[in-house]
Design brief:
alpha/beta; 7-stranded mixed sheet; 7 strands; about 30% helix; globular
Length: about 200
């Protein structure tokens, strides 16, 4: 039986603005970040999307985002946390090597890419095996994008670079496979303030 899960990135944070690595370390939502969460909440309401359960990373920025979107009970899971950047936590992002990072951060006390992706995939799978759906999951930028790329062969949508805060990934789950059906982002640069979708290019 197919189940639906909406996985999304948290709202903008102080470290996002300062272009600092923000994996397992944390920083508060900005005022724009809070506004992004309110817009996401309205998107779900406008589209009559109601959740049977909600989950988020244990990082405060994800918790705060979820609490601005819904007042329903939720579960915090360490398995949904962002990539652990080790000694590069809180450092300027220009110090990072070119992507893909591979095992670079593992050499500095963080996670290797495969280790990180396996953690997210196994956590999301346990959630969906347990829940009926629809499910809301609030996580992080690299977590969302690396998770979706893991299932590229099954996705209907291509995930672009430069993922916006509070981007919403709509997945269908069945038999251990997550298929990305929609990627929804709010275009804050548009005068019309519209939701934008990224459809397949292949």
């Amino acid at each position: 039986m197919k189940k639906t899960v909406y996985m999304m990135r948290h709202g903008q944070t102080l470290f996002n603005v300062q272009h600092k690595n923000q994996g397992w370390c944390d920083s508060p939502l900005t005022e724009l970040g809070k506004e992004q969460a309110y817009v996401a909440r309205q998107y779900f309401r406008d589209n009559n999307i109601k959740f049977n359960s909600a989950y988020c990373s244990t990082s405060e920025r994800a918790v705060d985002t979820l609490e601005l979107i819904t007042d329903m009970p939720y579960t915090r899971l360490k398995g949904l946390k962002e990539w652990n950047f080790g000694a590069f936590e809180g450092k300027d992002s220009y110090l990072n090597p070119p992507s893909p990072f591979g095992d670079f951060f593992k050499n500095y006390g963080g996670e290797g890419q495969n280790e990180f992706v396996d953690r997210i995939v196994s956590t999301m799978t346990r959630i969906m095996e347990k829940e009926k759906g629809p499910v809301l999951v609030v996580s992080h930028g690299a977590a969302c994008s690396r998770f979706s790329h893991y299932f590229d062969d099954y996705n209907d949508v291509i995930v672009h670079k430069g993922l916006k805060n509070c981007a919403i990934f709509k997945f269908e789950y069945e038999n251990g496979i997550f298929s990305l059906k929609d990627l929804i982002e709010f275009d804050y640069d548009s005068k019309k303030k519209e939701w934008i979708r990224y459809f397949p290019e292949k």
